[in-house]
What we know:
It contains 13 helices and 8 strands. By secondary structure, the protein is an alpha/beta fold. Strands 1-2-4-3-5-6-7-8 form an 8-stranded mixed sheet, with helices on both faces.
Amino acid sequence: MATREVKAGDLRFAYESYGDGAEIFVLIHGWCSVRNFWGPVLADFAALGTCHNLDLVGHHPATLPAHVHDFDLVKVASMQAAAIKQIVGKKKVTVVGHSTGGLVALALGILHPGLVKRVVAIGPVVHGPVRGPLGFAKDLYKLNLHAALHLPFAFIRSLPDAFKNIFETGVHDSKAFFRRRDADKYVRAYREQMLNISPEVMGAWLTIIDKADLRPALTGSLLPTLFITGAHDRVVDPGQAREIARKMPNAAYHEYAASGHIPILEEEVECFANLKLWLQCH
């Protein structure tokens, strides 16, 4: 599928479109991720309607915003919304986001109700802070030690198998995942795209995630939302989504017992069967 570009203000976003149904889906990948993340399930989404696979702000090949160091979730949601409007005009969309893309999808649903019809948040971040190794990376960024953020990328470039090993931490059963016929090709393509991302942008996004907290805005919200999580997610605590789903009257929460951070790939058939049922009701 041909890649297209859209401009929103001074920013350029890349996207691809699939399907031609009446329902419109916008896919947003996560932090340190790429549009290719959705590759194995694009046909599933295209079967549901028109699907636009869009860059997350600042992620290659999307242009790097000026003053990225001053960004917060409200600002990046506004930029993402402007890009979506350039693609769909005045139509309303279902935003599907994974991980940090889920955080952005939820923010879009709250801040731009005229654009967003409903949200599907997969393994989403709901609130900060960022802890562990990523918390350390965030602190390096705040201290302007940006050169240190290039080290993980240099490591992945020098050892091609390193990214596969890192990717395996995101799934619950790596052996089962890599039995997929498309798994090795998918991970290789993912790695090549990811190496184009600016480490400085990754650091800036860590500060955005660290300061984010959607719980006050989502509590009591009538936004139709489907939360999809994996019971064995070691990247984002599924408790974040589980907790807030209980406080949203129109939210559903699906937790997949055999999945980690990527249930939509790990239990693809079950996820899409349940997604279709939810869409029929919302």
